[in-house]
Amino acid sequence: MAEGIEAFRAGRWQQAEDAFRTAVRRDPDDADAQFNLALTEERLGAADRARTAYQSALRSDPDHLPSLVNLARLERQTGRAEQAAQMLESASRRPALAAEPAFWVQLSMTERVVGNLADAERAARRALSLRRDPGAYEALALVASARGQEREAELLATSALRLDEARASTHVTLGLVAYRLGEVVRARAEFDRAVALDPSCAEAWANLGALALGWRDYGSAEHAYRRATELEPWAVDSRLHLAEALAAQSAEIPAKAPAAAAAYRDVLARAPNRPDVICGAGWALAQERSAAAEAGRLLRKCRDLPDTPQAERRRIDGRLSVLDSMARAPAGAEPASSRTGAGGARDQAGGTGGSR
Q1: For the range 70-75, what are the long-range contacts, defined as Cβ-Cβ under 8 Å and sequence gap of 24 or more?
Q2: Predicted model pTM
Q3: What 3-state DSSP class applies to 132?
Q4: Residue 246 in domain
Q5: What is the pLDDT of residues 260-287, one digit of tens each?
Q6: CA distances from 211 to 232, 246, 353 (A)
Q7: Distance CA 282, CA 241 (A)
Q8: What is the pLDDT, as a whole number, of residue 329?
Q9: Is residue 314 situated within a structural domain?
Q10: What percent of the chain has pLDDT over 70?
């Protein structure tokens, strides 16, 4: 265990995994060892293995709150919020868990992602009835924001910071509220504050990347999204926006073009049916002569999507003509063209980040 903890803190994920697996083999009923293994699997991007390890920890100790909290978060981040809500509702009948504010905060976060705002508010207020918990105020702030009550959300998040000024996730919440109020500079300052307090706050990095995309600062967007994907390797949105940032730089930095193509291929493998992935990958791969056939297939698929605007379809037809000409012509230079997305700060509660 000590070797694994030391390796984890140093960012040596594979070494940490090996050490924690040894600890688990020696004592399969050690919930802490299972929890540490799960956390390491997350860092390695192995969401399924992490889920299994958290579940093993809870079988060993059904009241192991850290495993329950992290498992619920992981389920939300990987599109399984309803399963997380059912799991937490069942766990709420356990007296030891029901006495913990953090449990009710987690239930609030999950119910909000599912769309049950009234239940999310009730769970957060239950947490507050147990203790003046900053997480409960933050959960209430996120419910208020989901209802469009941004000023109330701001007041609630500020109440959370009065209890814990160094709470990175609350600074992210304030940044999201500021963005929705049109105060983009303040939003950026809050996200910067969050990563300064906690460099492992993936949601802060992702939102910094989103702002940078919106400002067409593609180099900064690339940096921020790389950090976000390192911290949450399974997060498809961060990987997609990283690919967009790379593609946007390819005209001025040709070496970025193959990196963008590789990034899009990675996202396609994870989310092959998402329209924004299909279209973005088609335009990015169209920059590589060797990928002309693949790009043409994706662009045709993009053109035929029901939500693709008519103007975009005309652009695709033009690009397909170029690709067809390239296929008939000898190797040589090809014209540059790309399509990139513009970002905006986003609430990652449903997909990524911390305990959101």
Answers
A1: 70/35, 70/38, 70/39, 70/42, 71/38, 72/106, 72/107, 72/109, 72/110, 73/106, 73/109, 73/354, 73/355, 73/356, 74/42, 74/47, 74/50, 75/51, 75/110
A2: 0.83
A3: coil
A4: yes
A5: 999 999 999 989 999 999 999 999 888 8
A6: 19, 15, 17
A7: 15
A8: 57
A9: yes
A10: 91
Among 151, 340, 167, 338, smallest CA distance to 240 is for 340
Answer yes or no: is 249 within a domain.
Answer: yes
Whole-angstrom Cα distance, residue 141 to residue 154?
Answer: 7
What is the per-residue pLDDT across 68-114, written as a single tens digit (0 to 9) for each?
Answer: 999 999 999 888 999 999 999 999 999 999 999 999 999 999 999 99
Of 329, 308, 325, nearest to 339 by C-alpha is 308
**Residue 237 CB contacts under 8 Å (≥ 6 apart), including other chains:** 206, 346, 348, 351, 352
- Residue 170 in any domain: the answer is no
Tokens standing for residue 62: 């059904």
Amino acid residing at 175 = G
Q: How many domains does the chain have?
A: 1
Q: Phi first, then psi: give them for residue 305, nearest 5 degrees.
A: -70, 140
Which residue type is seen at 86? Answer: Q
pLDDT of residue 33: 96
DSSP code at position 309: -
Give CA–CA dist 286/284, Å, rounded: 5
Please give the structure tokens belonging to residue 346.
């986003």
